């Protein structure tokens, strides 16, 4: 990020309609505020098969993102957490939102989402603190049963290798995808690797996210999913 916010400022941002995080500043195996992780692939059917062969659970088709060029399939990872397998929608003219997925030769992590609470208030307070973001932007997706999911999303304008999350708030009248997606899997571990873990840890901590940081040769996200068949580890 071009400008880091101090821990004191973050706690101020979290005041009012946004409650301060209840977790300790020691990173957990899975971030407390994690909403979902995105597994990108160039073909949705192959992405679904990839996950099913390794975990033993088949993700269900979720729908398409109109105007964004993508479609997805979903798999619950426990309460309020899920895996989104996202791929180009052949009926649209390219994956504008995540163009990298068009070139992937195998599925890999391309990002993740966190849920900070009232996103409009959160965005306004970030803006007052000088933290560059885009949104909240409304989004929607029609499910196969005809129901429409609605949400708002806020992205950070500076987010190297997508290690930091985007932020999401689901509409009050939308069922969270983890509730009606195929179950049987859980997220055991989610972490980021960096050649400079101390610097990345500062950014993560100052945003109030308890993401585990480990030292690695390159910037990378890593997730380990447990299923009835076996464990699956995916990386960015």
Give a summary of the structure in a few sentences.
With 236 residues, this protein is of the alpha+beta class. The chain has 5 helices and 12 strands.
What would you note in describing this structure?
With 236 residues, the protein is an alpha+beta fold. It contains 5 helices and 12 strands. The chain starts with 6 loop residues before the first helix and ends with a strand. The N terminus is likely disordered.
Main sheet: strands, sense, barrel: 8 strands, mixed
How would you spell out the order of helices and strands? HEHEEEEHEEEHEHEEE
Structural class: alpha+beta
Q: Report the average pLDDT across residues.
A: 85
Question: What is the CA-based Rg, rounded?
Answer: 17 Å
Into which percent range does the helicity of residues fall?
A: 10-25%
How large a portion of the residues is in β-strands, by DSSP E? 35-45%
Topology record:
Blueprint: H1 7-13, E1 34-40, H2 44-55, E2 60-65, E3 70-76, E4 82-88, E5 108-114, H3 119-128, E6 133-142, E7 148-156, E8 166-170, H4 177-180, E9 186-194, H5 197-206, E10 212-215, E11 220-226, E12 231-235
């Amino acid at each position: 990020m071009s400008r880091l916010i101090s821990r004191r400022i973050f706690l101020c941002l979290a005041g009012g309609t946004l409650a301060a995080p209840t977790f300790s500043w020691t990173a957990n195996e899975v971030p407390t505020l994690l909403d979902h992780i995105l597994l990108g692939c160039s073909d949705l059917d192959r992405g679904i098969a990839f996950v099913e062969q390794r975990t033993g659970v088949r993700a269900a088709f979720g729908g398409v993102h109109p105007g964004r060029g993508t479609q997805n399939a979903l798999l619950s990872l426990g309460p309020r957490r899920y895996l989104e397998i996202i791929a180009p929608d052949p009926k649209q003219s390219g994956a504008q939102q995540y163009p990298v997925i068009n070139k992937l030769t195998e599925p890999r992590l391309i990002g993740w989402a966190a849920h900070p609470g009232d996103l409009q208030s959160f965005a306004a307070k970030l803006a007052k603190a000088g933290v560059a973001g885009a949104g909240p932007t409304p989004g929607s997706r029609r499910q196969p049963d005809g129901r429409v999911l609605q949400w708002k999303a806020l992205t950070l304008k500076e987010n190297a290798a997508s290690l930091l999350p985007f932020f999401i708030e689901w509409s009050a009248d939308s069922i969270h995808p983890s509730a009606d997606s195929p179950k049987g899997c859980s997220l055991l571990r989610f972490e980021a690797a960096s050649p400079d873990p101390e610097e990345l840890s500062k950014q993560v901590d100052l945003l109030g996210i308890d993401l585990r940081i480990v030292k690695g040769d390159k910037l990378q996200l890593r997730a380990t999913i447990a299923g009835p068949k076996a464990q699956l580890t995916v990386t960015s």
